[in-house]
Specification:
heterodimer, A: 361 residues, ABC transporter involved in vitamin B12 uptake, BtuC, 75% helix, B: alpha/beta
Chain lengths: 361, 507
């Protein structure tokens, strides 16, 4: 039993953290809601009560998966690049502009889609190159760099859309609508689950293969584990810092454009949507492993949708929904949570091992 | 109870599951120098940390002067008269010796003003009593290591401790400085101090200890008086088998010059000239030892040769090609390997898997990878073969390196570096901080490489190691090669000491 607990400790800890988080949420709901039983049901079961809500989970998870991967790759190299937020946004804006410009060429749908997605992906890579290069060349602080670049990305995108591609016939600030043949198909009836989700899943496996089965992925991880060791071994640390940022940017760029082409069909954001920050959360929960990030993204999306249902159908204020969500995530990410329990089990196991049959071996 | 300290059935388990002390029991008598010896990982440092209140044991009892104690922090230990001098000094470098000494026990006037006069009087009284020579007004950073250590010891004495724990105090000292330390320890004993002396150096244990306790694998193996044991006995009990300390046989054949260092000068970022006009050669099949007290430019010399730093002036030639300024990989592909002095900083990525650590210099070459894709079938079989051939003790190549013992981590590094058929080996402190058994293995691997016509540069502060392996010895002091010895078999550590301290210079 103890051996089993030690082996799967991380998984068990996560499950217990989620359960405690749920228990705390229940407690909060009992306090703040007049019909607490209903509220609890909305929060936890609400997301599964209809096909469209299940669809909502998947729709919301899609951009978070992309951003999670975009964050995880530089994180694996110990580069605290939090630029996915801005990269996602600006790639979507420039991708939209690009799509509108080449609209006149009347390309066949498939080629058009591939071309636009490729453009946005490469644009994301370019945007990721900027902090990567500045960090490698001038030892600039990665967190500060990417935070500032997120602002730059935001204002540049808003300028581009509002001044050059604004649809004046729409009743609100937005770009022109994209032509129909570039839409990513929504393939599940009664939901908006689109091809972008399949691309996200494919990206998960590509990123996983990249990190754990290629030489560049190996270099990225070794630099992340121990920068001095990488240098001593002959790994080109400069190249790794730049490329980890670029490759992260590729996924953010792809995710941004897929979101536009799959859900909104035009660039209609006027503020940063926050997927980049969700990406940081799921990268941390998923320990920078793309496959775990996929599950973490679905879980985060489930919590969000539960919150939305709760907000929509009960008397619980929206703010409490945010509190509940953060408590659950806080518990999952608390590294030291249950660490003393693990220590006690370890001690017991180790003593058993050493003092077999009650005597000194 | 008669003993100053009695330890009964101490069990200590660390959070990673390592059982460092497995029911350790021990008595330490008053006014003795009691050596606790054992290999790294034998549990001796853990035991002293428990005695000084730095670690809490899971089980067991401790009696100090007949009283049962439960130390929760070093403050409790000091109150009971126990002081400790750590391997790494706990001194404020920018303060004077005087300021360091009174730190935390400052006598005051009206509880606010520092009473320097009273403080000084007390210090002078203690200096008189213990006959310890320290320069009170100098800043710590201006002092040689031996004197810093004396300050550390005196700091403990000033807190009126009568039991003094010294954790590997000679690790940083030259033989001459160690002798001075031993003199003061004997004097302290005469003044009534009890001294617990942690070490794994056999010679000095024989020279200083009254009682010797040997630990192995978390247990006390034996406690004897010094006279009852020979050096050989101690080594055997520590390791659990016979070990050899004999000098390796001379090389049969010394070939052509492989590595040439010419007029090498290096000025660091603080504009200090760390290396001044260094010249030497290393030939095929010989081991050139560079002896010196740490911090005299050895680290920089090694970093320059291995491509981690670029020289300010001068040349480094490998097979008649100037390699200064080339990248680490370019130098490595020419057959030069590097066993680094700081194994945790440079030598491994401790959280990465063992197999990932074994391929860090070759992962990009086929068959380890093809067109950028890693070939795990080959990597796994190769890693398993290396683990077996080089006797690395681990449960699996999938485990992180951090799960291995210090000696085994060093074996991982040596394995990786020596298994690539190197032509030149730069070995920096290759046996530092590892147990006698692993040390013997590492030395054997280096000697075997030499016999396969490898050129070896051995940089070490451990003179026993230098004298055991080297074909020729150079002494480095203050960034200069101050002496070279071509005949090593008759050389003694005492002959090297004056050059290492800069007292003497060769021509």
């Amino acid at each position: 039993m103890e051996k089993f607990v030690l082996k799967y400790f991380n998984l068990i800890r996560t499950i217990i953290a989620i359960l405690i988080g749920f228990a705390v949420s229940v407690l909060i709901l009992v306090i703040v809601s007049t019909s607490s039983i209903e509220s609890i049901k909305y929060l936890f079961l609400g997301p599964f009560m209809s096909v469209s809500r299940i669809g909502n989970i998947v729709e919301l998870a899609t951009p978070i998966i992309f951003c999670g991967i975009a964050i995880a790759i530089p994180f694996q190299a110990s580069q605290f690049n939090v630029g996915a937020e801005g990269t996602f946004f600006i790639s979507a804006a420039f991708g939209t502009a690009f799509a509108l410009i080449i609209q006149k060429l009347n390309l066949p749908g498939f080629i058009y889609i591939v071309l636009v997605l490729t453009f946005a992906t490469l644009f994301g890579g370019f945007w990721g190159f900027i902090p990567g290069y500045l960090k490698a060349r001038f030892k600039a602080n990665m967190v500060v760099l990417t935070l500032m670049l997120n602002y730059a990305a935001y204002f540049l995108s808003i300028y581009l859309i509002n001044y050059h591609f604004r649809d004046k016939s729409a009743g609100f600030l937005t770009s022109y609508r994209l032509p129909e043949n570039i839409f990513l198909k929504q393939f599940v009836p009664n939901t908006r689950i689109h091809i972008g989700f399949l691309i996200a899943i494919a990206s998960v496996f590509i990123a996983y293969y990249f990190l754990y089965h290629t030489t560049l992925g190996y270099e990225i991880r070794m630099v992340g584990f121990n920068f001095h060791f990488a240098k001593y071994s002959g790994i080109d640390v400069f190249k790794v810092i730049v490329l980890s940022s670029v490759i992260g940017g590729l996924f953010a760029g792809l995710g941004g454009m897929a979101e536009v082409m799959g859900i909104h069909r035009r660039f209609l954001w006027q503020s940063l949507p926050g997927y980049g920050w969700d990406g940081v959360v799921v990268a941390i929960i998923g320990k920078n492993n793309p496959i775990l990030i996929m599950f973490a993204s679905l879980f985060l999306a489930y919590l969000r949708i539960g919150g939305r249902v709760l907000n929509l159908l009960s008397d619980v204020p929206f703010e409490m929904v945010g509190v509940i969500e953060s408590i659950i995530i806080l518990l999952i990410t608390a590294e030291a949570f249950l660490e003393n329990v693990k220590y006690r089990i370890t001690v017991k196991e180790a003593e058993k091992e050493v003092f077999k049959n009650g005597s000194l071996s | 109870m008669d003993a100053q300290i009695s330890v009964r059935d101490i069990v200590k388990v660390y959070p990673n599951g390592v059982v460092a002390n497995k029911k350790v029991s021990l008595d330490i008598q008053e006014k003795t120098i009691h050596a606790i010896v054992g290999e790294n990982g034998a549990g001796k440092t853990t035991l002293t940390k428990i005695l000084f209140g730095l670690e809490l044991p899971q089980e067991g009892e401790i009696f100090v002067k007949g009283k049962k104690v439960h130390f929760r922090s070093p403050i409790d230990a000091i109150k009971m008269g126990i002081g400790m001098v750590h391997q790494h000094f706990m001194l404020a470098e920018n303060l004077t010796v005087f300021e360091n000494l009174i730190l935390g026990i400052e006598p005051t006037k009206f509880k606010i003003f520092l009473d320097k006069k009273t403080a000084k009087e007390k210090i002078l009284k203690y200096i008189e009593k213990y006959k310890i020579d320290i320069p009170l007004e100098k800043k710590i950073k201006e002092l040689p290591i031996g004197v810093k250590q004396r300050v550390e010891i005196f700091k403990a004495l000033l807190r009126d401790v009568d039991i003094l724990i010294l954790d590997e105090p000679t690790a940083v000292l030259t033989p001459q400085e160690a002798e001075v330390l031993f003199e003061s320890l004997r004097e302290l004993k005469n003044q009534g101090e009890t001294i617990i002396f942690i070490s794994h150096k056999l010679k000095e244990i024989k020279a200083i200890a009254d009682v010797i306790t040997i630990m192995r694998d978390g247990r006390v193996i034996s406690t004897n008086s010094n006279e009852e044991l020979t050096q050989h006995d101690i080594a055997r009990l520590m390791v659990g088998r016979e070990v050899s300390f004999e000098r390796v046989e001379e090389p049969k054949e010394i070939g052509k010059v492989v590595l040439t260092v010419k007029n090498l000068t290096y000025t660091n970022s603080e504009r200090i000239k760390v290396l001044k006009n260094i010249n030497f050669e290393v030939r095929e099949g010989e081991i050139v030892g560079i002896a010196g007290v740490e911090g005299n430019g050895q680290t920089e010399l090694v970093e320059l040769i291995t491509g981690l730093k670029t020289p300010t002036e001068g040349e480094i030639r490998l097979f008649d090609e100037n390699i200064s300024g080339k990248s680490v990989r370019e130098i490595r592909t020419r057959g030069l390997v590097h066993i680094p002095e700081d194994r945790m900083k440079n030598g491994v990525a401790e959280k990465a898997k063992l197999k990932e650590n074994l391929i860090s210099d070759r992962y990009y070459k086929p068959p380890f990878s093809n067109k950028g894709a890693l070939n795990y079938n080959y990597i796994d079989s190769e890693a398993n073969r290396l683990v077996k051939d080089f006797n690395i003790i681990t449960q699996s190549i999938e485990n992180p390196v951090s799960s291995l013992s210090g000696g085994n981590i060093q074996k991982v590094i040596v394995t990786r570096e020596l298994s690539s058929n190197p032509k030149v080996i730069i070995a920096s402190q290759p046996a530092r901080g590892i147990d006698v058994g692993s040390e013997e293995l590492v030395h054997n691997f280096i000697k075997e490489a030499r016999d396969k016509k490898c050129a070896v540069l051995l940089v070490s502060a451990d003179l026993d190691e230098i004298l055991k392996l080297s074909t020729r010895v150079l002494v480095i002091y203050n960034g200069e090669i101050v002496k070279s010895f071509n005949e090593v078999s008759t050389l003694r550590a005492e002959d090297l000491g004056p050059y290492m301290l800069g007292v003497k210079r060769g021509d």
